[in-house]
Design a protein that fits this description.
This is DUF4890 domain-containing protein. The protein is mainly α and 151 residues long. Helix content is 76%, strand content 0%.
Length: 151
């Protein structure tokens, strides 16, 4: 009888320890899901995927927009340059403390506009129009997901 009670206690302890071992990203997803009532194993609650490589981005655009080999190479170079610049900014000193959120937002918007101008130089007008349409659809989907998690 003592052995049975010991085994039951050991099983209960190991089960509780196993359920307590949740990764930090999963804890956030679980907490958010508990607030909005969605299931915790839903794909949208999974941890973020690793960012796509420059080649993967070029492959996706080649498939979606029908890029030529030359356009694909230009896009890879642009993406690699963009990543190098971002890494250099992260490695450098932080923005001055007196920089307002509006100024930081303006800096990001300026970088995005420069990127869009470079894409326009790579894509044909039809390809860029299709790219803009796809980008808008993604933004709407992201907005819809955000609204779902808030309610």
């Amino acid at each position: 009888m003592k052995k049975l009670l010991t085994l039951l206690a050991l099983a209960a302890l190991s089960a509780s320890a196993a359920t307590a071992q949740v990764s930090p990203g999963r804890k956030k997803a679980t907490a958010a899901a508990m607030q909005d009532g969605s299931p915790t194993n839903a794909p949208e609650n999974a941890q973020r995927q690793a960012p796509m490589s420059a080649e993967q981005i070029a492959d996706r655009f080649t498939q979606q927009l029908g890029l030529s080999a030359g356009q694909r190479e230009q896009l890879i170079q642009l993406e690699q340059s963009r990543r190098t610049d971002a890494q250099a900014r992260r490695a450098g000193s932080p923005p001055p403390a007196d920089t307002s959120p509006a100024e930081r937002r303006q800096t990001v918007q300026t970088r995005q506009q420069q990127y869009e101008a470079q894409l326009q130089g790579i894509f044909t007008p039809d390809q860029y129009a299709r790219y803009a349409q796809l980008r808008q659809e993604r933004q709407q989907q992201r907005g819809n997901r955000r609204m779902q998690t808030r309610h």
